[in-house]
Design a protein that fits this description.
With about 130 residues, the chain is α/β, with parallel strands linked by helices. It has four helices and three strands. Helix 1 packs parallel to helix 2.
Length: about 130
Amino acid sequence: CPHHRRCLKCECQSCEDCRFTRGDGEHVRLLATRLRPKRIVLDFDRTLASTRSGAVPIIGKDSIDDDLFSLIWDHPEACMVVTRNRHVEEIKNFLAALDVPRIDVHSLKRPRSKAEFVLMGIREKEC
């Protein structure tokens, strides 16, 4: 970040001027309430859900973040999952079983960039 002369990744910093923010599920939910974005992209493993390393989500064992659950209910038309986890149908079934509104789930294989996928179709004025 040129404003604070810090590495946003290494030092877990946020910078309003850079339009880069870090936080937990509650932070993201509050930010979305304030900004009303048209696109909200969530990773699945260790972000939306408690699953790890591309594992199949198991009902009764795995859970979802309460604040991100609320975020999806507040902004279902804007939310999607972009993950490297290949178990798309199982993820959809897991979310449905937990009463999460239906949202798109996209699985990307390496070397495809998640950022490239997320930015696809966004005009410069929307960033």
